[in-house]
Amino acid sequence: MKKIHLQRVAPADIEARSMELIAQELGERVFSPEQLPVIKRAIHTSADFDYADNLVFSADAVAKGIAAIKESCTIVTDTQMAFSGINKRVLEKFGGRAVCFMSDPDVAAEAKARGETRATVSMERAAALEGPVILAVGNAPTALVRACELMDEGKFRPALVIGVPVGFVNVVESKELLLSMDVPHIVARGRKGGSNIAAAICNALLYQASGNARE
Amino acid sequence: MKKIHLQRVAPADIEARSMELIAQELGERVFSPEQLPVIKRAIHTSADFDYADNLVFSADAVAKGIAAIKESCTIVTDTQMAFSGINKRVLEKFGGRAVCFMSDPDVAAEAKARGETRATVSMERAAALEGPVILAVGNAPTALVRACELMDEGKFRPALVIGVPVGFVNVVESKELLLSMDVPHIVARGRKGGSNIAAAICNALLYQASGNARE
């Protein structure tokens, strides 16, 4: 077997060491102290430094996400992958929970009956939730567009929208729509994003809310 | 609400349209016909064209993955996120299943008792499975290194190893180790990768095995 030289870093310290290396590579660039952990965690999950440039935060978006977490919010995702990636242990400490309606059989049945997409029906489910909601969209631009319509109609008031769908069809447009809305948002401008990025941003907020930045 | 111009693409056609756009952007570059769907699906899940350059395939890696799927393989992942992203419906059509041992309570208990990482114990569980195994590592370089050690000791013979951990500590080294091993492999050389990429590669193989390339 080939000899490889592994860095001797204890498993518990690997994340901290990774964050140091990311900070080094970001160099002299200045980011706001509450946004930096979000940016670093998006880079940590992708090794893609484009997230240092493409993440756009509305005023106080991070503070509003943290406040929602402290008020036992529901985090709504548009994929099971994003749901899986969210640190539920930390979320539950705050009395919160994460949900994904996309594969619920009744959502599929209603979507079929109405000739709508599951993403559309899922967003309507999200709008009907009680208490503060963080909406984290990492996949479906249709979900993001429907959420914006519901907000425009005054039927949905999320505490924060994490708008990071990935892809090539209507993705950029859906994010530009969100950027124009009067709702707290964190957006990965352009085509990049994904369920991993959505989960990473949620976790960055959770760790800041815990007072354990784990940058 | 801002007016946006969405492309009129039926939901069922969005993936096909995305793959067309990716193919256009890849331009005149020539890829082997069995590798191309894997490359395109990695780009589809990340909007990151670096995967056109960093994915490395051992000889017949794709064919061996497809053969394993047709022989009702077990796909072992190192994260719940990658597990969530795999199309289990298609996998189950072939009599296969996906598993992730990382959050099993008995794996955690054994790891603690032995002073090992959960990733190490998980790989030992994978090595003990009957039937063909596709190992998909999207997160933990320690898992990949332990899997290579088990292979070197003759204790683990996966049909295919998808080695796409992401990150900054021992990630590059773990992939270079896998690249040196005499085992069928698909590797994202460098720091990039992730659970989404691991799942995307599995799905690309599943769709090819189904004869529905869904490129």
Describe the structure.
Two copies of one chain form a homodimer. The first copy, chain A, has helices at residues 14-26, 36-46, 51-54, 61-70, 80-85, 88-93, 105-114, 118-127, 141-152, 171-179, 195-209; strands at 55-57, 74-77, 97-100, 133-137, 160-163, 185-188. The first copy, chain A, has 215 residues and is of the alpha/beta class. Chain A has a six-stranded mixed sheet, with helices on both faces. In chain A, β5 (160-163), α10 (171-179) and β6 (185-188) form a beta-alpha-beta unit. Chain A is globular, with a radius of gyration of 18 Å. The mean pLDDT of chain A is 95. Chains A and B meet through α1, α2, α5, α9 and α10 of A and α1, α2, α5, α9 and α10 of B.
